TrEMBL record:
It comes from Hypocrea virens (strain Gv29-8 / FGSC 10586). The keyword DNA repair does not apply. The chain crosses the membrane at residues 179-202. This is Uncharacterized protein. Residues 338-424 form the PA domain.
Amino acid sequence: MPSEKVPFYDPVPPTYDEALAGSSRAWAPPTRDPVDERNATETESRSLLPRAGDSSQGSRRPDGYRAPTVETDDEDSLWDSDSDADETNQVRREMEELEIEEPGRTGGTLWGKRIGFNLSLPTWKWSWRPRLPRIRIQLPSRPSAPADNSTAEEAVDREDPDNMRSWLQDFAFPKVNSMMVIVTVARLLALGIVIGFMYFLFASGMLTGLTNGMNNGGMRFDPEDLRVHLQKSVDPRRMRAAVKIFSSYAHIAGTEGDYATALDVEAMFNKAGMDVVEMDDYYVYLNYPRENGRTVQILDETGDSAIWTAALEEVERGGESAGKQTLAFHGHSKSGDVRGPLIYANYGAREDYQKIKDMGINTTGAIALVKYYGTQTDRALKVKGAELAGFAGCIIYSDPADDGFLKGDVAPNGRFMPEDGVQRGSVSLMSWVVGDVLTPGWESKKEVPRMKVSESQGLVKIPSLPLAWRDAQVLLQNLKGFGQKVPDAWKGGVPEVGEWWTGNESSPVVRLQNEQDENEKQPIWNVYGKIIGMEQSAKSIILGNHRDAWAFGATDPHTGTAIMIELARIFGDLVDRGWRPLRSIEFMSWDAEEYNLIGSTEFVEKNVDALRENAFAYINLDTVVSGQNFRAAGSPPLRKSLFHAMERVVDPNFNTTLKELWDRRNNKLEGLGAGSDYVAFQDIAGTSSLDLEFAGEAFPYHSSYDNFDLMEQVIDPGFTYHGILAQVVGLIILDLADRPIMPFDMVNYGRSLETWVGDLESWANKEAEKKNHKGVLKFEGLKDAAATVSMQAQQFSKWEMEWDRLVIRSGGWETQELGTARIAYNDKMAAFETALLDLELGGGIPNRTQFKHVVFGPQLWSGYDEAFFPAVRDLVDAEAWDDANKYIAKTAAIMKQAAAILEI
């Protein structure tokens, strides 16, 4: 059960209709079997697709119901997504039915065996179950009396072998006439036709495919029909309803509200028909603010009394039904009550703190005031930089020049941060330690050993708090005349400040109090749903999204939550109708991502060996709809599937495909840094990962203004981009999970490595020149390794054309030997990414050994940004030139070993 917390950061306890608001737990009564439920709803279906509700798969499904713990009469349910009663009832009916619209139909494909024959999605429902016919053979009975009037004993004698001659003498052949000849010939002809037809079924692979499909719980439908069907099935109204319920109350990680969302997702996965649904808990270090434990004050000259106190909190946005909104604080911040002169340090980058030092300003024991965004985007590194510069505390505020009224209209009527808006967030060092900061490298189950809080390298050592510009304005005004005037580039957009000054040791003394509750074993809850593949059930395509939020979280994270729930519904319904993917599809709802990517990292650390063996791809959904500009970051093999999807999906606001818009904007597949749940999969497990979003200008990030009304009225009216992205993600999943040969772009990986090695060499040489290094950085081996990978990938990829040729030449027949080779080919493509991990004892990025990938990983001092070859960059940045050359050579050796996997 969730731990008890004081109510200032917990909502009213979740209830069946209020907290979960008519969630999927209301969809099925507890006494009704899921198979009976599906059979009962078959006759009510509006869809023209068959529904195999009474198939053998019913026994593999979970019960799909978990009884609610509390009841309410509140009618604001998940399905009550519109204000008027008619639309509410319509959405409720459609969500309860979980039906799918009829797609268009196209012709079948060529390949047959193992893939099965490809059924076009029919316009009728299955009313039968495939089974072998019963063959009844009538044995002749003995007559009661012999036909020749002999005795019974004589008849028995005729059956005896010793009396065979006499029996033959008595046997009479039937008379042959023309009618008997015609009947015999007709029967032989019919038998020949039947035998020929059966031979055709086996030779074409149809019967084998059907049998394999049935044995594994699914049938093969035409791929084009499936794609059209999926795109038509995406319903923005359902996603609107999901965003509304999940953002209707505050639910930071580990609280009752968070537990309610976990139960809700679990129930939705069950109702969607997942084969396996599981809730998985971990026990991790989290902190929570005390209502009277946080203070920012300007003290008088004696330092005893406050002459001004910051308001800290936002205007209440939640309302009574949502419970009191989350207090303003920093996750994983340091407890403390410190006082010191105030010094303004721009964006809190290392260069900014160095400039303050170069000005001759003493920062020891001072309080830093810095802005969000800018040249240092990671708030934790702003605080860490202040700590290393000698500051006693750090305040981070939202400046209107970056995300406020100077950009445009502010919330609630616009998308930018209002004057009281506060950006919460974590200040744990996710680019240094990821996951639970007390169990780096192993899963944080209840009884495992833990580090001491004071020993963790993932925590900052000075207290910090976030602030609205409304409060920062007073602090900035009181710096006038102290220190030096700031450079023009340091000036922000806070009104009525007049002159911007740095402050110094003589600045007004500021008190920063941050006393909090801390729990080293706070429970959190991941929720998993799985559709089991019919050919390679152990291999998985994983879709993940985090569920916890700093406040209401309509944009971050529940734009992604809504898409994941919608796709679980669509794919689950397809399984219910007889389809099943070749590889398993997993849907994963992570907890405590906002603190330090905890839920996903602990899962990976617990299952790392299995993931390295069986996880083919990970697709991440987080803050996925905040604008209209499509953005993608990921590992190069996934580019092909991404482009397949983008070429099919149309943006109605621009009346063209996403691929055309992508090309117009000269977009590219970006690299992966840190910042969301793909980190552990890509950098620890070696799973090719993809992070997708429709990005836009700044929005009231991590504030209470990021709520449902802002999403519906400002960011995505009509939930158009929710629908577009759901199509993209669904098509990618279908591509990766159901194509016979996975569409991994290995050639693109080879070419990308060559480009990145060249970029690394140029950057490193410039850094060496800047730092007056006289030695030589040796990149020849690394360049040769990248060229080897590129050449091997081109040769390797030719086998796909050979497989295609063999299958087409045989009229769709795939032999068992060819099928085995195809599966091995798929496994090699996925294994290449894993082979780029540095798994030797003590391996990984030096001093950050959790991160094992030699190509991808977060930069040490720029965690959110992409950083190719992060270990080499760390060593060059630290001027460890000999170690840099050693790691360059080590990386080259690992890349050549990975290239060897791509041998046919």
